[in-house]
Amino acid sequence: STRRPREHRVKGFTHCQREHLGTRLLSEQLPVDLVRSVTCQVCHHLLSEPVQAPCRHVFCHGCIVRYCRALGPYCPACSQPCSALDLTAPANVFLALLNSLPLRCPTRTCGEQVRLDGFRAHCEAHQLEDEGGRGTPPAACDDLTPNKGG
Amino acid sequence: STRRPREHRVKGFTHCQREHLGTRLLSEQLPVDLVRSVTCQVCHHLLSEPVQAPCRHVFCHGCIVRYCRALGPYCPACSQPCSALDLTAPANVFLALLNSLPLRCPTRTCGEQVRLDGFRAHCEAHQLEDEGGRGTPPAACDDLTPNKGG
Ligand SMILES: [Zn+2]
Ligand SMILES: [Zn+2]
Ligand SMILES: [Zn+2]
Ligand SMILES: [Zn+2]
Ligand SMILES: [Zn+2]
Ligand SMILES: [Zn+2]
Ligand SMILES: [Zn+2]
Ligand SMILES: [Zn+2]
């Protein structure tokens, strides 16, 4: 339908909902403005391969490229000019913060806190443990119900 | 004058302009939303002894206490209820980020990048070097001109 709210249209448009991680995985009650600063303002997931526009807004690389291709070379957050050539790597201190964010493993029997940069490997290890297929699938951003199977 | 813009009135009201550090000290071109997340929304300085309200907005402890005493127990950012009893320490991952922010030393002959949690000690060391009084004063948030004296 073309009547879905904008957020859902953008999610469809960026095709990232199976790959990116949702902010609900954050295991601590972090300040809302900090959560916003590590959230892509195009897809509303945790930033994945973040790049910085000249206006210093930050997006997933895939999201900003697809957004600008579809809607023109302007920042989705502030509408200042922003072409693919203008994108740069964010400061290391920011990337270090992002990578160190604590996420909660959604596997029912686990619940561990895992750093963002170790999260995928952690989830893949659960899959290997549970080869039979009765385990929890790896966490996609919109699929955090921990006990579907069983 | 009572006609100064609101920001200046609040700065006067919180009496922190000689103590807190300005965001212009940040030595890197950090994402704007990250800078916002480490800025007190009462005084607009870098957060000093931050505390978190139930709505997960964060302020300098002194600022939110003075603000609520003057204007009532409501969050300055979102107007949800917020009394002194509701304030908690922000998550450690947030405090670690704040303390690790790289600031630029404003002493003319230095210009080093210094972590926020080592910044005051660094500036005090410059003062000791320059006992004669010809050195640059320690950085106050609104006083970053590095070469006033001579
Ligand atoms: Zn996404
Ligand atoms: Zn994105
Ligand atoms: Zn922008
Ligand atoms: Zn786990
Ligand atoms: Zn202040
Ligand atoms: Zn403040
Ligand atoms: Zn609030
Ligand atoms: Zn210095």
Instruction: Output the CATH homologous superfamily of the domain at 6-103 in chain A.
Output: Zinc/RING finger domain, C3HC4 (zinc finger)
Assign the CATH topology of the domain at 6-103 in chain A: Herpes Virus-1
The percentage of residues in β strands of chain A lies in 5-15%
Q: Please name the CATH architecture of the domain at 6-103 in chain A.
A: 2-Layer Sandwich
Instruction: Please report the number of helical segments of chain A.
Output: 5
Q: Give the uncertain stretches of chain A in residue-range form.
A: 1-8, 139-150
Binned, the helix content of chain A reads: 25-40%
Q: How large is the radius of gyration of chain A?
A: 17 Å
Quickly list its features.
150 residues; alpha+beta; Herpes Virus-1; two-stranded antiparallel sheet; disordered C terminus; binds zinc ion
Question: Overview of this structure, please?
Answer:
The structure is a homodimer of 150-residue chains. The first copy, chain A, contains five helices and four strands. With 150 residues, the first copy, chain A, is α+β, with helices and mostly antiparallel strands. Mean pLDDT of chain A is 84; it is low at 1-8 and 139-150. The first copy, chain A, has a domain at 6-103: Herpes Virus-1 (2-Layer Sandwich), CATH 3.30.40.10. The longest helix of chain A has 11 residues, at 61-71. Bound molecules: zinc ion (8 copies). The site of one zinc ion (ZN) has 7 residues of chain B, from loops.
